[in-house]
Prior knowledge:
Layout: H1 7-25, H2 34-44, H3 51-62, H4 67-88, E1 98-99, E2 102-103, H5 105-108, H6 111-130, H7 138-152, H8 157-166, H9 174-198, H10 205-232, H11 235-238, H12 244-247, H13 253-257, H14 259-276, H15 285-296
Antiparallel strand pairs: 1-2
Helix pairs in contact: 1-4, 2-6, 3-4, 3-9, 3-15, 4-6, 4-9, 7-9, 8-9, 9-10, 10-14, 10-15, 14-15
Amino acid sequence: xxxxxxxxxxxxxxxxxxxxxxxxxxxxxxxxxxxxxxxxxxxxxxxxxxxxxxxxxxxxxxxxxxxxxxxxxxxxxxxxxxxxxxxxxxxxxxxxxxxxxxxxxxxxxxxxxxxxxxxxxxxxxxxxxxxxxxxxxxxxxxxxxxxxxxxxxxxxxxxxxxxxxxxxxxxxxxxxxxxxxxxxxxxxxxxxxxxxxxxxxxxxxxxxxxxxxxxxxxxxxxxxxxxxxxxxxxxxxxxxxxxxxxxxxxxxxxxxxxxxxxxxxxxxxxxxxxxxxxxxxxxxxxxxxxxxxxxxxxx
Length: 299
């Protein structure tokens, strides 16, 4: 996966690699409890753009990380992401029936199974990440496990979701909205970037700071674009129910800034992401291309 490969080809290569890795790392549907394992695979396999695994691999290229280590880190973060989607779609949260163009897990199976799928995927993520070969670098293994836990817990993704649920029907200031999405979306995207980098080495403070600045920019950009697409695209294009934020009276960038200013903000954040990567030179090409993908995507 050298930088001479076109981005589209590189992306497809990573996506294919991750489909194989996730197929291997998820429990077999032939092993009891078979229905739970089947539902876990339904939630994870054959779906999504795999943005977080792409970030893991792109950041890993900066520090010549081992491919096998990146596969495990990417699989772990994608399992955390998938579990969050399963739980978010349940009636007690966002109550959605469509995800990645197919019925959500609680619709396909049932609510109890969906709850267990999320719980089991979270546990499986840490199993997969902990079993990697880290050679004589146990500190990196611990750092990666801690990073994934922090990114997905109350100080990260779960905390952001809690704020989101508490914000329905409220008028949030722009700063409050940004803080919510820094946790709900941005924390796991940052975790993906740093997991990939840590796959190669323990990071210097300056390296972490640059990657943090990049992650902050793409994390907010991802949500801004999501809000724009929710307001402008249809369900078939999105693979999930369009217009749901407005219907549920949720605060969004579009509801606060309007469409034009939201699009301008996304473009500014894309440029900020590029600037943050300047210390890494050409080796950060893939991370720059992913920033472009996040902002310029249509679904």
